[in-house]
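User: I'll paste a sequence; please echo it back and then give the predicted structure.

Assistant: Echoing your sequence first, then the prediction.
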Amino acid sequence: MAMDVRRRTAWAAGIAAAAAALFGLTAPPAHADRPADAGARAVAPAVTVPPGVTAGVAVFDRQTGTFTEQLNADTQFRSASVVKLLIALDAMWTSGVPADRTRLDAMLRSSDDDVASGLWVQDGGSAIVTRMVARLGLTDTAPPPAAYPGTWGYTALSAADTVRIYRYLLDSAPAPVRDLVMGDLRQSTRCGADGFDQRFGIPTVFDRPWAVKQGWSGFGASGDCSDTAATTTTTTGRTAKDAAPAPASVDIDQVALHTTGTVGAGDRSIVAVFTLQPHGTAFGAAYTNLDRLVRTLNVPGGVVRPGSWFGTWGSGVHVRAGTATGSVVLTNLPPGVETLVSCQKQGDTVSVPPYTNDWWAYLPQYGGYMSNIYISSPDNELPGVPVC
């Protein structure tokens, strides 16, 4: 059953108990607080950095050997989990691909922090970064500050140096090393081992083929993303990545969210986008800011996912395999994130009294559906979105 119009009013805030039982949600905010975002075009005409965001960007077209985007490309950011590329390469530099590659797979596919911390200690800590700087000719990369020798996520890294790392992987690394690392990045799991959603930036904006190594820091101990392919829980790695702020050579106070990797057939483009966002920025808001920036990039060979972008509301909103409330839950959306919708269709009715909605939106980056009731739009059926 559909309503004519869903005006978002404050008195709806207290009626979430029924929805919580069905969807595992926290209480929804007053509907008046939900942004009335309209669907937006997937690509804007020029690079745009959202307000309050500091960004470093480099996009390199391997076919022409030129950069199509550079913005603060040499600026140092704290690497967060992007440094795991260097940890993996160093681990294989002399001994090659290990017979048991399970740990490297977990670190690269699901960003497992415990594996990174174990290899960091095993292989000499900051010496890993020093060795890789010399081996790859990196110019903006530096070990963590002296006060934080064990905090691998505080390694300084730039967008330009990240392009150099991927160019080494693709053009110079021994084939077994290249195949392991790039193969794992092509199999990046929907959720990180610490429960944070990894589908921001490159994998949200572009259709496959892509390969990604993402980075995030400052959002707390764990997220609420669920993914059967990422089952490891982490402890020491979170400490290494998110230690308490103190003076350092790179910013370690603002939240960090980075997307790096390759896009297009034959890994045509290398993309590196680093962002720092104001302290206290929620993960869903940071995710949205990064996606908006990536949508404005000129990425040769990249196929932009078709669809329209909409704001969402609620916490723990499920993305399901189908349009039935009993369909398998694929993951949970980060609270308040903007998401891409490619089509919609009717299914089970969802009720959050006094509102009901039987329309469901298909989210291509997750390969599943969410109820339109949690999308910020005035009508049950989303404007301008085709029927699946």
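The longest helix spans residues 159-171. The longest strand covers residues 343-352.
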